[in-house]
Input
Amino acid sequence: MAGVKSVAGQARPNPFARNGFVTGIWLLLAGYLLYSVNALGLSWDRISTGMGFAGNLLDKMFPPNFSRWELLLGGLIESLEIAVIASFVGIVVSLFLGLFAARNMMSGWVSSPVRALIALCRTFHPVIIAILFVKSVGFGALAGILTLVVASIGFIAKLFAEAIEEISLKQVEAIRATGASFVSVVLFAVMPQVFSRFLGFATYQLDSNLRNSTMVGIVGAGGLGGTLFSAFQRFDYDFVAAILIVIIALIMFGEFLSNLVRRIFK
Output
């Protein structure tokens, strides 16, 4: 109890204490915020005018038009296929790259280049990567799959490597002491400690890929995004509303699937 009292009695420094430096930083941030608002031409009149246009757009979007359900279903199936294939390939590749990037399992000459590769995969937004792949391999689902594989590696491999670096090395040393091979060390000392976290990363990425598979199509990488972009170009707003509703249903399905997988392997 004495220890508790001594800890409770310690005076913690106030993180919001006022001094000249902190006040100067806040004034600098406030000044830059005002400058940015002015430089971008943001005003209440601009927002009010924009809200009026948004109201007109919503009027044209409802009721949604599902009459071209075959086109909608084709785009939905393609988005699902892109997301599932990209997630599977990305998860498998990330499993190995994450292991090779872990500093406590690999020497520096192995982990450093792998970490650089993972960082490179995480550098650009999926839309930018999709544009590069569309220019490289052409329009269609292949560009979307390659895009989401790169995005999956950038996310899962990084977090998986960090998870491995936090494991207890006692189990690793115990397995190594038996003369086990490297593969046995990974299977019986590393994976049992990180499998649940890897599963969480993988299910989250699957959910993310379902969303992104509908987005990369806007630049020609297949899926519902292409159908959505074409509908916008034709000012076919009631069909746009139908596409958006289907995308929302797809995301909800992904959320349900992620929760189901976590519950099974809990």
Q: What stands out?
A: Confidence is low (pLDDT under 50) at residues 1-8.
